[in-house]
Write a structure and sequence with these properties.
Elements (H helix, E strand, L loop, with lengths): L1 H12 L7 H29 L11 E7 L7 H14 L4 E5 L9 E6 L2 E6 L7 H5 L6 H9 L5 E3 L3 H10 L5 E5 L11 E7 L27 E5 L5 H14 L4 E14 L4 E3 L8 E6 L4 H10 L3 E7 L8 H14 L3 E5 H13 L7 E12 L1 H9 L5
Parallel strand pairs: 1-6, 1-7, 2-5, 2-6, 7-8, 8-9, 11-12, 11-13, 13-14
Antiparallel strand pairs: 3-4, 3-5, 9-10, 9-14
Helix pairs in contact: 3-5, 5-10
């Protein structure tokens, strides 16, 4: 039901002109709500821009990674890339995450000695139920911690508090604020904003009429603009670059792709070449912000997509979800079921306790790769000095 509602909203949100009377009524209602939302955003931004409200300054440097839209631009992969770059510079880095999709809050993770170490914010060991039920933890922090060994990922709603903890107790010198462009309460030294290559040149409407969290002119606050998934729409990237320049001529402008890097059978602990997807007939399972992008990636690896079971972003998989997918694989007999690394974090407990998959289950790993502007990005990051 939730997926049907999300799909219906997304269709309206990206619709320029309604094609029916019911669509027109729904769009008018959403537009009324969007006008109130836009006014609230403008008032909030004015309060910070005019120093009516002063942001909190932490005793360390802060790099924010965010976007203007809801989901689907690849923030997690970008946070991983930026953290890796800063760590290679010798910085002591920590990531601050809001922890969307997790039941638990107020903890930090770090990959230590081949396992995920979980700690509460007061320094005590994590509660036993958090260790026993990894799905109680948010998926993106777990993925970041696994991909960034030794880098703590601190999770909590109050990010000025979690940031102070990371500085004082974890000796972090540079913090990466995950999904932080709208979190203006926390002062930052570098604002990195991601723009999906498929975004219209003028943007979409603001929430809830469209998927924009802020109008396009908010891009003037950015220090770095990254056009993500640029390899999917190469014919329009040049025009999008020029359009972004009209909003911000001083920001470093970077293009990036989200490239597949690994194919793993986690149940058999086997690593396969990406070539295994060439000519394969597969079923897809995902609950991410950009399921269409995931499907396009699989198709570019020359696989045939037999079906794609989509769930809302951060969906907490239930046994019946996996049973339905296993049944679809039994009747359709694809060569494999393919899912994402983020999905596997939430899917693993259900799969291991549920019916066996009738075909192999493969997890496709994807990383951000920079196509242009890397020197400009590195220069901006180098300018984020250590206090």
């Amino acid at each position: 039901m939730w997926q049907s509602l999300h799909d219906a909203w997304w269709r309206l949100a990206t619709l320029d002109r309604p094609h029916s009377f019911p669509d027109a009524l729904a769009c008018r209602a959403l537009q009324t709500a969007a006008a109130a939302y836009r006014a609230a955003v403008a008032l909030r931004n004015a309060a910070y821009d005019r120093s009516w409200v002063r942001p909190v300054r932490l005793p360390c440097r802060v790099v924010s990674v965010g976007n203007l839209t809801v989901g689907g631009t690849g923030k997690t992969a970008c946070v991983e890339l930026i953290a890796s770059k800063l760590a290679r510079q010798g910085r002591r880095v920590a990531v601050l995450s809001r922890g969307y999709g997790g039941r638990s809050g107020g903890y930090w993770l770090r990959w230590e000695d081949g396992r995920m170490a979980v700690h509460s914010l007061d320094g005590a060991p994590a509660p036993l139920d958090a260790r026993a039920d990894p799905t109680g933890l948010a998926d993106e922090p777990q993925l970041l911690a696994a991909h960034l060994p030794g880098v703590p990922v601190v999770v909590g709603r109050c990010r000025d508090r979690t940031g102070r903890l990371a500085c004082e107790r974890l000796q972090a010198e540079t913090l990466i604020l995950d999904d932080g462009f709208q979190h203006r309460r926390l002062s930052r030294d570098c604002d990195i904003v991601l723009v999906h290559a498929r975004m219209p040149f003028g943007g979409w409407a603001v929430l809830p009429r469209g998927p924009m969290r802020e109008p396009m002119d908010s891009l003037r606050r950015a220090d770095v603009l990254i056009i993500t998934k640029a390899d999917e729409t190469l014919e329009t990237v040049g025009a999008l670059r020029e359009r972004l320049r009209a909003f911000n001529r001083d920001a470093a402008l970077v293009t990036a792709s989200h490239a597949p890097t690994s194919l793993v059978d986690p149940l058999g602990d086997e690593h396969h070449s990406l070539n295994r997807l060439d000519g394969a007939r597969v079923g897809l399972l995902s609950s991410i912000g950009d399921p269409a992008g995931f499907e396009a990636t699989v198709r570019r690896l020359h696989a045939t997509v037999a079906w794609h079971r989509r769930f809302p972003d951060h969906h907490r998989y239930r046994p019946e979800d996996w049973e339905a997918v296993a049944a679809a694989a039994s009747s359709g007999w694809p060569d494999a079921i393919v899912t994402t690394e983020k999905d596997w974090i939430r899917l693993e407990p259900v799969v291991r306790q549920g019916p066996p998959a009738p075909v192999p289950l493969w997890v496709l790993g994807i990383r951000m790769q920079l196509l242009s502007g890397e020197d400009d990005l590195d220069a901006r990051l180098a300018g984020v000095g250590v206090r």
